[in-house]
Amino acid sequence: MASGALADDIRQKLGELSPAERKVARVLLAGYPAAGFETVAVLAKRAVVSAPTVIRFVNRLGYRGFPDFQAALRDELDARNASPLSLYETTGYARAEKTSGDGDDQDSALLRHGSEVFTGALTATLAELPPHDFEHAVRLLADRKRRITLVGGRFTHLLAQYLGLHLMQLRDDVRFLPDRDVERTAILAALARRDVFVVFDYRRYEADATTVAALVQEHGGKVILFTDTWLSPAAPHAEVVLPSRVAAPSPYDSLVPTLAVLETVVAGVITALGDDARRRMQHGEDVARRAGLY
Known about the structure:
294 residues, Rossmann fold, Arc Repressor Mutant, subunit A, 2 domains, 58% helix, five-stranded parallel beta sheet, alpha/beta, 14 helices
């Protein structure tokens, strides 16, 4: 099994399932993750299939039986809710810190460990990224008829700003969702079908990200969600979901793989816009020089 969210595994295998098994998959995805903790009988009734179909479905996902599937789901929820403090206490990081060597040996070991962790997370993230979702994200961001709004969280507002500042150099109608209540309310009250919201939400997920995504979807707009492999609760409201690994040499989740995805998205947008991107960049350079900004 892939180490990503079970919901993502189910989505990727939809094309391999029988029609009856797909019914089970859709019931699980519609009520994820709570639906996964129903009994086999209840899940079968909700999907209008037989109990053996539910068992065949979890077998198809790679589990020995339904209890095995539910155990994996519980492990996933524990991981989704992990905090830096809980990771510090449960991963052995504190013990490793106390027993590690001193001086150059310790520094060298940490550098090697960091190289292994970041290289693995980055490689896995780009390999696991759904090509269709990536291409769809690029199309939405390059569509100049769309209005782009970026929304970040406690730490991920830095990523929202990073992507937004690049997009502003390539096209019009790019903005950030304001922090102040009145301004934020005004933007959310004026949502329309041409809106594309780029939302960043990682574990210890923030409720306002899900609320914003739901509002955008309700008004016919599109949501591009950057999240971790356990998937933000905002995922059901997103048109595009781009998950990244968050493994790090410390108890804090890494945003390095996400940054690589963002820079790849920017490259895609530049390619999609073609010469219009170059002209926009040139015009921005000219204006900045006249204004004494560069």
